Amino acid sequence: MSNTAKEQILDFVRGRYPQAEIDETQDIFALGFVNSLFAMELVMFVEKTFGVTIPNEELKIDNFRTANAMAELVARLSPTLAVA
């Protein structure tokens, strides 16, 4: 079971693409794994899973390119969560 935000995000992405080996630093947009629907699913997953609301100014592609970037976003929005 995943404990950190980064692990939970990676589990979510890997669950969508089980055939791919995706690590925390890989740009899932550049790899072609993200379309507009999956981008919205990522936003909804992050908000629901971590109990945060992503403000419009944080809805930037750079905040969602990698599991690291998404975990950093979660940490900024909810500093009490484990990110490592």
Automatic annotation (TrEMBL):
Recorded hits in Pfam families, A to Z, give: PP-binding (PF00550)
Q: Which domain of life is it from?
A: Bacteria
Q: Where is the Carrier domain?
A: 1-78
Q: Which InterPro entries does this chain map to? A: PP-bd_ACP
> What name goes with this protein?
Acyl carrier protein
